[in-house]
Amino acid sequence: MRPVPAAVLLFGIAAAALLAERTASVAVLASVLLLVCLRAPGARRWPYLVGALGSAAALLLVTPFVERLPGVIYWTGPTIPVVGTLDVTSTELSGAVFNACRLAAVSLAFAAYALWLDHDRLVQAAGLARRSVLAVALATRLVPALERDAAGLVEALRGRGVEPEGLRGRARLVSPLLAGSLERSLNLAEAMDARGFGRAGATRMAQPPWGALDRLAVTGAVLAIVAGALWL
Amino acid sequence: MALAVAERVSFLYPGAAAPALRDVSVGLSPGQVTLVLGRSGSGKSTLLRAFAALIPHFHGGRFSGRVEVAGLDTRRHGPAALAGTVATLFQDPEDQVVFTRVLNEVAFGLENVGTPPSEIEARATSALAAVGAEHLAARLVTELSGGELQRVCLAATLALEPRLLLLDEPTSQLDPEAAEALVELAVALARERGTAVLMTEQRPALPLELCDRVLFLEDGSLAFDGPIAEARTWLVERHPVFVSAGGDVGVHLHHEGDVVARLDDVSFAYEDHLLVLDGAGLELRRGEVVALVGPNGSGKTTLAKLAAGLLEPLSGSVARVGRATYLSQDPGRYVFRDRADEEVAIGARGDLASARRALATVGLAGYEHRHPRDLSSGERERLALAAVLAPDPDLLILDEPTRGVDPERKEELARLLRADPSRAILVVTHDIAFAGAVADRVVSLAPERELAGV
Predict the structure, then answer these.
(1) φ and ψ of B339, to 5 deg
(2) Which of A33, B20, B121, B257 is at a distance of 20 to 30 A from A217, taking alpha carbons?
(3) How far is B96 from chain A (nearest CA, A)?
(4) Chain B neighbors of A197, CB-CB under 8 A
(5) Which residues pair with B222 in a beta bridge?
(6) Contacts of B159 in chain A (CB under 8 A)
(7) How many domains, in total, are found in chain A?
(8) Would A116 be classed as within a structural domain?
(9) Is residue A24 over pLDDT 80?
(10) Is A205 a domain residue?
(11) Residue A219: which domain range?
C-alpha cells in the first residue's frame, strides 16, 4: 500500500476513535491499532508503545482524582486545600477508562504511522504541503534519533566504567540529549540549505499510480469516520 | 578564467573572539583540484562555507570582502540559489541526511533544483553507481555504516553535477581503499567534466599525490597558495608532519608485559542476526600499542567493544585483567557536566585531581572551568581522551581517535600513547599512517572475518 492512503486510513481510524461515544468501540479500535504496532520490529516499537500506553495509563490514573462527578463512591480520600476531598466515583472511573482508550487509540495511530509508513514517499507524494510534511517526517524520526543518541551517551559512560542505572542515572542523559538534538538540527538545516531546499521550482521524482488497495484504504477511512460519527 | 573567486574575505562567527578567516583571496579554476590544509580551527571549513554562500547567509556573523561563484555574488545570492552550481559534502554524514531511504536521499537535491521528474531516478542511480553504492539504493540510511553513508552523501552531491565541488574532510570515515577511490573520483571529475574541486583533508598523503594546488591556512590567514611541487617544498620546511605523517614518533619505550586482555574464538551478531565476527581472537599485553585496522564493516569497533566489555560475545571467551576504558568515535558524547574537569572526573569516581592531571596530559591545562560544549572539535577530542585516561585503566581502547584531527595533533597523540608503558592500548583506526606511527603491532581485520597479525 502507498503511504498516503495508509496515512489517510490511520487518520480515519483515529478520527473514528475521537468521534465514537461507546467505550467498547474505542477499545476495539485501540486494540486493532495495538496489534498493528506489535507487528513492527521489537527494537523499534518499544519507545512508541511505552509513550502511547504510558500516557493512556497516566490519564486513567489521574482523571478520577481531578474530576468531580456524581455517582457511586468507590473510595474517599483525604481533603486537600484548594482541590477539596479526593474521591473516586463510578462516573469518574468510566469517564477515565473512555478517555484513556481514546488517547491510546490516537497515540497508537501515530505510532503505527511512525513505525510502518515510508515517510520518504509520504513527503514526495505531498504536493503544496511538501515543506510541512517534511517537517512532520523529520520530527517523526526524532524518536529513533534520540534513542540512538541515548545509546551513544550510555556507551560513553559505560566506556568509562560508569553504569547509568535507575531513574537518576537516566535523568543525567536528558540535558546532553536535548543539546545534541539542537546541534544536529542546526547542522541538518545548514545541509538542507546548501542542497537548495526552499528554492522555487522544485520538482518530485516520478511516482507509480495508485492501485486498488490504495483506493480501498481511502474508502475504509471515510467509512470509519462515518461509522464513528453515527454508530460507534 | 576563474569559476569562483574570494577577494579579501574576512569572517567572524557570532560571539567568537577571533576571526575564522582573515583577508583571504583565492581563485578557483575549472578542472582544478585544490587541497586546503591547516591545523584544526584554522578556517578550512569556513572557507568552504564561504564558497557555498552559507557564510554569511546561514551563520550570520561579520563578513567582509567578496565571494563570487559562476558570476553570482554570494552577498546577494544565498546557498539555495547556488545549489546545483555548488555542491558541498560536509564532515559528518549523519548530520546531513534528510530522507530515510538512500535513493530518495540522493534524489533530494535534484528535486530542489528543479530537475525534470523523469530524469531524477536515473541521475540518482548513476551517481550512486559512480561511488560504488548502487546496491544501497533501496536500503534505509539508518542501516548503513559510517563509510557507506559517506559514499551516499557524496553521491547526493555528485548527482547535481556541480561546477564547484566542496569536500570537507570527505575521507574521515572511510577505509584506505575507499578513501583512495573517493579522491581519485574527485580528480576524475575535475579532469573529465571540468569541475573545480576544493577539498580539506586531515590525511593529506594521497591528495598531495593527486591534487593540482595547495592552500595552507594558519589562524584564518592564507599562509601558502601554490602548485603542488612548490607546496611540498614549503610544507617540508614549515610543517613537515603534513608530508611525513606516519613517520616514527621517537623512542619506543614499550616492553611487553603481562596479558591484560585475551579474546578467544569470539563471535558476535547484532539484532539483524548477521554475523559481524566469527571466531576472532586477539591478545593485548601491558606496555604495547596495538592498532586494529580493516575495511569499513569488517567488525573493528565490535571487536573493540567486546574487548572493553561493552558487548558480550555470542560465543567464545573474553578475559580481562583490571579496568578497561573505551573512547567512543564521537567526542560529542562527553558532555554530561558543565565543567571540563568535572566531566573528566566522572570515570575517576569524582576525583578532580586525577581529572586535572589527565587534562594536563592531553594539553588542556587551564581548560578546567570551560564547558565541554564550548570547546572546539579538536579540544573536544582531547577532552574525551582525558576522560578515558583519568580512571588510569589497564586497557585503553581508542576508537578512531584521529577522525578530524590534524597531522600535528596526531603526532602529539602518537607520542603520548607511545610514552605510556603502564597499560595495554588498542587503537581502532582507518588511518594507516597513524597506525604505523603509533603501533607496536598492527592487526588487520579482514572482511572474511579472520584475524591476521601483520
Answers:
(1) -125, 145
(2) B121
(3) 5
(4) 80, 98, 108, 112
(5) B217
(6) none
(7) 1
(8) yes
(9) yes
(10) no
(11) 3-199+210-230
